Amino acid sequence: MEDVHEDLLEREESDDMPSIPPFPFRSTRLHIQRSNVCSRAYFVVVMVFFHVYILNVIALLLYVHYNNGPGDLVSGNGGSSSPVGDGGSPSPDPAASSGELQVEDYSHSFSLPRIEGIRVGHIQQVSLVPDRTHEMKTLSLKPLLFEIPGFLTEEECRVVVQLAQLKGLMDSQATAPSQGQEQSNPPLLSLSTDEVFSLLDLNQDGLLQKQEIVSHSRSRDGTWLSPDNLRQILTGLEACPTGMLSLGDFRRVYDMSQRPGQQRSGKLHGQFKQRSKHTWLYQCPGSHHVLRTLRNRVIGLTRLPSALVELSEPLQVIRYENGDFSNAHHDSSLSRSETTCAHTRLAGNTSALTEVSCRYLTVSFYLSSVDEGGETTFPVADNRTYEEQALFQDGVDFTDTQETCSRGNLRMKPTAGTALLWYNHLSDGQGWMGELDEYSLHGDCPVRRGVKWVANSWVNVDPDHQQQARYQRLVAQRHRAKSGIEDHYQSLSHSDLHQDL
Predict the structure, then answer these.
(1) What integer pLDDT is reported at residue 178 of this predicted model?
(2) Hey, which residues does 141 pair with through a beta bridge?
(3) Residue 497 and residue 501: Cα distance in Å, rounded?
(4) What does residue 205 show for φ and ψ, rounded to 5 degrees?
(5) Spatial CA neighbour of 453 closest among 271, 268, 270, 281
(6) CA 365 to CA 374: how far, in whole Å?
(7) Cα 258 to chain centroid, rounded
(8) Rounded to the nearest 10 degrees, how much is the dihedral formed by the CA atoms of 17, 23, 28, 32?
């Protein structure tokens, strides 16, 4: 038995040996090696995706950080805008309270943030007051226009109206004189073209130079040439290769400047008409707390540096009664080499012909509701193209809100407490103020029944980045010379600069 058993074991072993060649071992080792390669590749892919995710998170945080608005143009330490406290007034700046106001350090890295419109009808939440959010709706993309219902409470509207009434309103009737009116008020002297040339030629060298035209524009007694005439003459001079006008060249240029309808935008900007009453309310320290709160709310809404808003025009309050209106117009002006911004007169260009309004954006507040009429109209909002000539067709003036208000592309009915925000200028692509947005043309339809109260808050910005910075530096230096540097920068007010508005 034992021999048989051993023989069976030997036979089994001999049968098993040929069935296990060396190749399966090599196959098993290769299988393990492939598994390791797959695991390593999977690990690398996971790590790559993980790093990409981390980079995206960091980029998002940086975007949120820098999209909250840049720091003030004039600040003690180059920090960001002062936060708004619960009381509606900005928190003190540490550098300013420490007794030193640094106005020499002007960085070129700040920019003018713009609210994204996304699409017409888009609604985004904005936080302007504690424990409350407002809905901001995009009304158009050309111009970039938003509506914020409930921006002011009924009590705040009432206070602003009462303050305007206490201040006293003046007529803002501005109607272009008709041809009959012009003929009824002839000039004191009738000057020939040669006589006009001789009066402009200050050095009597027989050539008219740019500085001579500019010097005349600054004269207060030169009423025999209008700013439009001077602008046309200057344009003709700049087109001359020599940079000067001879008498023959001047005759041609001057005759063209005297022809009606030759100036671009002459009808639109030169014959702007309106009928209403208005006043100005200053929002500097010492003014009513509702006015200061309103200005701080504008800073929070626009996310602009507080220095820009603080040094802009006062709040304009307008009352439209039955039949009152304003024709379609632009709040801001086209930037030209011969003009300078009115708000930067401290640092103004002395070679400029005229001062114009430079208003980066407009925030308009309805202080009352209107029973009938009084809509704010944007005649060409979201048009595919803009052509000024198209505003005057077949004898119809589409800027005349008395006749064509119902034809406007976009109209908003006044509702007390609602605010409108729109940008009057495009971006220059580098974070600063660009060209005038022609689509921001707007007006006020005639009031048919009721009284319309509206307030306008403009933010003034010079298209010249350096000019704006220099203006703010001069204002800060004037303030420091007056009262030292004990007071906080937010108490800086240049209301005296706007007394002539």
Answers:
(1) 40
(2) 144
(3) 9
(4) -100, 5
(5) 281
(6) 13
(7) 35
(8) 150
Which residue, chain included where needed, has tokens 């936060």?
A: 83
Structure tokens at 229: 């005439």
DSSP symbols for 310-357? HTSPPEEEEEE-BT-EEEEE-SS----TTEEEGGGGGG--TT-SEEE-
- How far is it, in rounded angstroms, from Cα 419 to Cα 139? 12
| Closest-CA residue to 146 (of 169, 114, 175, 177) | 114
What pLDDT, in 10s, does the model give residues 426-453?
999 999 999 999 999 999 999 999 999 9
Residue carrying the six token digits 């420091």 = 480
- Eight-class DSSP state of 446: P
* Rounded-to-integer distance, Cα 117 and Cα 123, Å: 9
Question: What six digits make up the tokens of 425?
Answer: 């200028």
pLDDT in tens, 206-249: 888 887 877 766 554 445 676 667 777 888 888 888 888 898 88
Record the tokens describing residue 311, joined without a space: 């040094």
CA neighbor of 363 nearest in space, from 405, 311, 309, 399: 309
> Which token pair is 96?
């300013």
The Cα–Cα gap between 76 and 98 comes to 9
| pLDDT reading at 12 higher than 70 | no
Cα Rg of the chain, angstroms: 35
State whether residue 270 is helix, strand or coil. helix
Which string of DSSP letters, residue by residue, matches 25-94? HHHHHHHHHHHHHHHHHHHHHHHHHHHHHHHHHHHHHHHHHHHT--B-SS-SSS-BPPPB-TTSSBPPPH
Given its phi and psi angles, is residue 286 left (phi above 0), alpha (psi -120 to 50 degrees) or beta?
left
In angstroms, the CA 358 to CA 331 distance is: 8
Strands 339-341 and 354-356: parallel
Neighbours of 337 (CB within 10 A): 12
Whether the Cβ atoms of residue 146 and residue 422 lie closer than 8 Å to each other: yes
